[in-house]
């Protein structure tokens, strides 16, 4: 793609045929997070809302959301080494800033000696719940946020990309009413009814 750097922060125009071809073949893992963030408009969001994530971290999340988040933290990618408790370090300093990279996050312990990645995940999910009161915390957000933390360089980037995913690409899917999920399910059922009548007949039974 002509990116002569190990950590690109700019990519070719998304509409170009060459870009589409390379993306469909698969973005290299080392570039994947940067590409996601760039094409989702992340740099512009960071510039416009600088400091918002850090401010959210100083606020108190609701007890309901806090409890649900804690319940799901250790269910997130339990087989991934960066989320495993046995990846702990003796360093239990939890003063990691939102600008620390996820590689640094995973290399040492977080709150009470837990993996840094779990501490980062907690902060991102709490900040998201505060920022989006109509969603709060919804199951599966832990996996989305966890995946973003694995590929992006900072918690702040993961936080904003999670906002883009839930607001732009999957609007309503994680809302308390699950409106988006119901719409998607309705579309799926309609497609099955039209294209797979035999399967639809079984569902109807």
Give the overall pLDDT as a whole number: 82
Give the CATH superfamily of the largest domain.
putative rabgap domain of human tbc1 domain family member 14 like domains
What's the SSE pattern? HHHHHHHHHHH
How does the overall form come out from the CA principal axes? globular
State the low-pLDDT regions, or none: 87-98, 101-108
Which class of the largest domain in CATH terms?
Answer: Mainly Alpha
How far the N terminus sits from the C terminus, by CA atoms, comes to: 52 Å
Strand content is: under 5%
Question: What key phrases describe this protein's structure?
Answer:
single chain; 205 residues; mainly alpha; Helicase, Ruva Protein, domain 3; 2 domains; 57% helix; globular
Describe the structure.
The chain folds into two domains: 28-82 and 113-174, Helicase, Ruva Protein, domain 3; 176-204. Helix content is 57%, strand content 0%. The chain has helices at residues 17-25, 29-39, 42-48, 52-56, 63-73, 102-107, 116-131, 141-151, 155-169, 179-195, 197-204. Helix 7 packs across helix 9 and helix 8 packs across helix 9 (155-169).
Put the structure in a nutshell.
By secondary structure, this protein is mostly helical. It has helices spanning 17-25, 29-39, 42-48, 52-56, 63-73, 102-107, 116-131, 141-151, 155-169, 179-195, 197-204.
């Amino acid at each position: 793609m002509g990116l002569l750097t190990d950590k690109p922060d700019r990519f070719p125009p998304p509409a170009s045929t060459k870009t589409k071809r390379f993306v469909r073949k698969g973005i290299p893992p080392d570039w994947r997070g940067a590409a996601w963030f760039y094409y989702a408009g992340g740099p512009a969001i960071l510039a416009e809302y600088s400091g918002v994530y850090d401010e959210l971290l100083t606020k108190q999340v609701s007890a309901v959301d806090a409890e649900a988040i804690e319940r799901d933290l250790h269910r997130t990618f339990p087989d991934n080494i960066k989320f495993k408790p046995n990846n702990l370090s003796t360093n239990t300093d939890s003063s990691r800033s939102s600008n620390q990279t996820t590689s640094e996050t995973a290399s040492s312990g977080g709150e009470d000696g837990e993996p840094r990645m779990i501490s980062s995940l907690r902060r991102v999910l709490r900040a998201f719940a505060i920022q989006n009161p109509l969603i709060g915390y919804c199951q599966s957000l832990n996996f989305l946020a966890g995946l973003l933390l694995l590929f992006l360089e900072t918690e702040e980037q993961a936080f904003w990309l999670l906002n883009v995913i839930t607001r732009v690409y999957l609007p309503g899917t994680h809302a308390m009413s699950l409106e988006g999920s119901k719409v998607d399910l309705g579309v799926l059922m309609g497609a099955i009814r039209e294209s797979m009548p035999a399967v639809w007949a079984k569902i109807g039974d």
